[in-house]
Amino acid sequence: MKMKRTALLLTIALSEFLFASCTEKQIAFDVHQWKSGKNRYYMTDSLVKKLETEQPTRAKILDLLGTPELSGGTQETELSYFLKSDEILFGLAMSEFCVRFNADGTFLSAQVIHSD
Would you state the CATH architecture of domain 28-115? Predict the structure, then answer.
């Protein structure tokens, strides 16, 4: 009985460790890190909150985040910024930060998009 309980506790501890190591830590948005390309993916939660709170115009977002590096990433109603790429089983997956606007340039939404 004691052996089964020890095995169960070890299994639970290992599961919690694996779950904690797989979750990705988020950090506060920092404009200098963003513009240098560092840690962009890990700043997205706080950046989305910032944009949703401030409701900036397209011009202000371009000042804040810079010109998107992705080809086709600049449109009148959308800006897309490269975040990171990951190798997957049979190819490459990419994450980008997409900001959408109304036709008059007012903020509509911001989100992370994953593609493979």
Answer: 2-Layer Sandwich (3.30)
